[in-house]
Design a protein that fits this description.
292 residues; 18% strand; 2 domains; 8 helices; 12 strands; Rossmann fold; alpha/beta; Hypothetical Protein Tm841, Chain: A,domain 3; four-stranded parallel beta sheet; six-stranded mixed beta sheet
Amino acid sequence: MPTSIAVTSADLVLPATDHHTPTAALLQHPDDQTLEAAVADMQVLVEQSGYVVALYPASLPTAHRRRIHAVRALLESDRIALLASPLPPLALSLLVRQLRQLSLCDVGPGVLASAARLLSHYLHAGALLGSVAHLDRVPVGLKAHARSWVPGSRFAVAAHPRAQLVKAGAGELEGPEYATRLLFARGQLAADWVTDHLAAAWRVQDVQEAPLPAASPGWWGTGRLVEFAAHLPDLGVVHQLVASVRREVCRWCGLELIGDHCGFCAAPIGPREPRDRAPVPLRQGTPSSLGP
């Protein structure tokens, strides 16, 4: 059985793009499940798959966060990785799908857990907003706040990998320099700026639509939005990217991993040799630019 991927919200589970990608397990809110039932479900999941990689938003309500950490503590298991992510909801759902796809490849649980951080670097996430008056995820200047009160104003905002904010039609968001697909989700705004203007400016290969995650209006501070995220186009590119990074062995739990700490036990990796590299830069067009 492949390593199980778990999430804290059902709308973080995008439909699979093939018939092989497994779904993700749902770690329910404390209001919807007793602690005893949550522990029992997690124990079954670990027994079935060996390891569980659970992703949850950094903005997850405190009660829900405490529940998943309590379950892990009660099971006294080092086979459960709990990974908080600062990504916006739609981009986080894409990361979850990429890990679900990778779980079927020749990728061990330690590498799979640490790949979440690596792959986040290659997600370009933002939103078209009708107001930035309540936006606290990206710095907002006084002029933008003032313009939020002007009827018909729209703002193009990028939250990841770099914060950006421009008035739609009066500026451009810097996008990826490599081939991507664009996923968008409609709120209470028309999506034409995203599907036409942004897609052309970012030279995406394809544009697809998904339902708006329930957490998106709260994350962006308004329901007048169209959320979007550009992502790597296929599993072959994603797998080659992960495989190109040097692997280490965790000195505490013995799992093979990439990056600077273990996703399961959080143990840091010791000093690295100078030949180590930062995440591989991708160039527009071809997977062949993914060097070792």
